[in-house]
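Ticket closed. Logging final result for Ribosomal RNA small subunit methyltransferase G.
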Amino acid sequence: MDRLSELAKKIDIELNDHQLEQFQRYYELLVEWNKVMNLTAITEKEDVIIKHFADSLLLAKYKKLDESLSVIDVGTGAGFPGIPLKIAFPGLKVTLMDSLNKRVKFLNEVIRTLEMDDIEAIHSRAEDGGRNAQYREKYDLAVSRAVANLSSLSEFCMPFVKTGGYFIPYKASGLDEEIHAGKKAIRILGGQVENIFHTTIPDTDMERCFVFVKKMAATPEEYPRKAGTATKKPLGMKEK
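Final structure:
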């Protein structure tokens, strides 16, 4: 994990020995469980360190992740970016949400093995979770590396964010058209795009874009719509 330590320093994160051990154990669990279920196509250690761990931590370049923050990772999959952020910033209160129960079992095993507190894994579709009073508008920050257009992803994630909080998706480059289409959806959901940051993972040419969406007002009660609607009919986008 020396490689991860080097990359983290370039994001101004100092990882101690205990944290590096947690990342090592997380990697081992990921590879072990991936043999029997589809968690990730990326399993080579160097690739996992760069494309999963370091990528997840990149947010810290632009957002102060202090101990008072409650964070939900929507569509977390194998735990990215939520678990790396929790390891690096152990004071965060983290909820990992995923629609596949097998992945949630994996996440719970990681939480147990790494002996982490103030972190939970929830089995739920985003649309159902966003309507659940236990989670709706309860978080300072919603993050997601899920693959979806910004309009759909905003409908999945914005309902979880408190007024004054942020939704920050991890996006690829070449966002101009997606941003233009997504801004209308974001306004309908009670937010506005405050900033967009373009960066690369240290020591690579792999680009990452963070869209800072500030929650200005409560999300209207009719959102999120029923499961599948946000993907089939993205909010604010003209139907073909």
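The chain has a mean pLDDT of 94. No further action required.
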